[in-house]
Amino acid sequence: MKIFSTNDVASSIRRAHQSFTHILVNRGYTTIKPVFFRSSLIGDLPVYQWAWWNKATYGQLDRWRANGGVLLDQYTFSDRSGPADVLVFVECPMTMERITRSGRHVAEYTVLPRPHTWSVHEQCIDLRTPSVDRLRDLWAACGGKRMADDELADAVDLPKQHVQYMRSSLKPVEQWEIKPRLRPDSAALIPAWEWIGTGRCAEKKEIRVCGHKAAVKEMARLGHIRLQKIQIYPEIEPDWRRLDKRRAKAITDLASVRSLVESLPDHLQA
After folding, report:
1. Do the domain assignments include residue 123?
2. Strand partners of residue 168
3. What percent of the chain has pLDDT over 70?
4. Is the pTM of this model over 0.70?
5. What is the pLDDT of residue 81?
6. Whole domain around residue 161: which residue ranges?
7. What is the mean pLDDT of the chain?
8. Do residues 42 and 65 both lie within one domain?
């Protein structure tokens, strides 16, 4: 299968649509600060939106299959929608696996956007798969403890937003401490309010299983409750070798993608 690069995703979608009937657009994002694609740029084309986990969108998929047009796939891997003529990514992937797997059912070619800078992808690696030295610093501050993200950020002198990504490598369990303040008027929030009672401390997973996660977040937003998220870090030290290999793989994967993208012909000039 042929692969091209592009500096203009919308124009590449238009060009593909001029020659072929079924255009699949991978609209999944894996970087931390993505530049979101504006579907209004192709609003005059027959556009459908689909997400495999959302059954309400399956009618859109059926209409695209029957009539052709442009299908915006919300998932990061586009191998579930069935055959397509052309695949266009709105964001350059981080791995070759995503490119290969997403193009599994594509008949003609794939188009990859050429990043203006690779620093966004590199920062994503640094935050999602930090160096072992960085993780050891985090572990020295949080290992075996209960800590909020702002506490850990202060302890290691890093931005809270960075800590929130980095700590996932240490496998903490998230716990929500919930304290009631003002009873909500909305009937939709009352079951969660009553579940909280005079106060509750529960793991995030438990709250989701009970079906109250969305209501709890909404009550926190509206000021009906006080919500504090605590991370409970394991007492057993992480497998540093495994984490180092994971980072090395991420770096190698991105290097392969970059080498490929920078060697590809321009789709709009081909």
Report:
1. yes
2. none
3. 100
4. yes
5. 93
6. 117-170
7. 96
8. yes
